[in-house]
Amino acid sequence: MRVYQRAMGNESWTSVEDYLQTPTLIAYQNRYGSYMDYRWLAGHWLGEFPSGEGMMVYRDVAGVTPELVLLDFPPPLYLQSEAGAFQPQALQWGVIIAGIVIIGVILAIAWASVWCWSHYQNLLQGHFGDDKYEHCMMGCMGVAGCPIPLPLGSGLLWELWQWLWGRGSSDWREDALATELGIIKGRGCKRAIIPVRPGIGSPEWNCCDRFCRAVARIL
Fold this sequence. Notes:
Elements: E1 2-5, E2 14-21, E3 25-30, E4 33-39, E5 43-48, E6 54-58, E7 69-71, E8 86-88, H1 89-124, H2 131-144, H3 154-164, H4 172-189, H5 203-218
Parallel strand pairs: 7-8
Antiparallel strand pairs: 1-2, 2-3, 3-4, 4-5, 5-6
């Protein structure tokens, strides 16, 4: 028995898969190689010639494959009528590897951002003599200088956290406001799509510096 295909408008037919059938075994051959379908009551043993290596494919009483079956070789065409019943292992591993790479990239960017935020906090805190200026600069550079910008609301959450743990200051509201204003301004001071921690004297720093000095005078 053979399965043929013919392109629209062509006169000839092309053999896609050839079969040799016995009462319990169907040998099938296609352009990928030679394989066998050994039929059991519970399902099909699909294997490769001549190694015989393969996998048992279980099927329910309606002849439906109950769950995804992963194969290193193509199943016979007559078992592929149920969309999604089979999936090559190479494709599965490709999806897994791609997922690991994407997760790795996300974690790397997140780590770089936390490291970036900590860098600006250590650079600014207590070194410029004006608490409001330092909070504003932290918010501004946390957006203009880090791969993942400091999200709006971070200043308020940080001050509330400090207050809950008994380390907050009496003017925590003004500190939070200065940080939030800096975060808003940071979007306008950003110069690169993915900034790499620009330092003192950079265009990003100078932009934030001018704004935060004005904020410090007001607050």
